[in-house]
Amino acid sequence: MKLALITDLHANREAVQAVLDHARQQGVQRYAFLGDYVGYGADPGWVIDTVRQYVQDGAIAVGGNHDAGVVQGASPQMRPEARQVIEWTRAQLNDEQARFLTQVPLSRTENDMLFVHANAFAPAEWEYIQGRIEAVRSLHATTCHYTFCGHMHEPKLFHLSGTGKAGDFVPTPGVAIPIPPHRQWLVVPGSAGQPRDGNPAACYAIFNIAEQTLTFQRVPYDHELAADKIRRAGLPERLAARLAHGQ
């Protein structure tokens, strides 16, 4: 079975639709959404409704810090522009959309896989996996051999051997990577709606469970339309401009 791993959608309808279309063309049979459905972009309601429909059809979904911000109020650690978008987003959602954000869990375990937005060691504190130290800490916090998380907007793959040797690398899009279960793996697919590695194309990954391979994907989309919507919504200009540069 092919499982699509999609995270940090950030209310970017154009990017999310492009990713979903691409995943379907790749023969994906199931989907896992790793949080941050809202924030930054201009289509939070559409993104939430789309994810809700996939969940009703059997997809996995966990919540992110921007989702929690809409429900609970923006955290002091958030930048002013992110806080502004959180307040704007709250006013855009209907009751059912807001309820979805309150009900989505912070993490979910299925078989030998853990799905979480930020990390496995403290999901509700939103600490980033910035390198091997945080990755190993996260892998030590679970017995699962496969951990899938978002929060970091750049694609990355970490691994930990049974002897405690850790490694990481930046994947090449479209190249299948063997990830056998004699090691632990931590997968950061990169952001679908807000990539920040200098490439504006949307990110996601496909886990072929039967073959135990992982393929990172990049999908071009109409970032100019997404940026124009942000401007028309009256949101900060930087949030629109950065989409063209993947920053």
Automatic annotation (TrEMBL):
Source species, domain of life: Bacteria
InterPro entries: Ap4A_hydrolase, Calcineurin-like_PHP_lpxH, Metallo-depent_PP-like, Pesterase_MJ0912
Domain Calcineurin-like phosphoesterase: 1-211
A Pfam family annotated for this UniProt entry: Metallophos_2
GO molecular function: phosphatase activity
Residues spanning the signal sequence: none
CC annotations in GO: cytoplasm
Protein family (similarity comment): Belongs to the metallophosphoesterase superfamily. YfcE family.
Protein name: Metallophosphoesterase family protein
Organism in which the protein naturally occurs: Ideonella livida
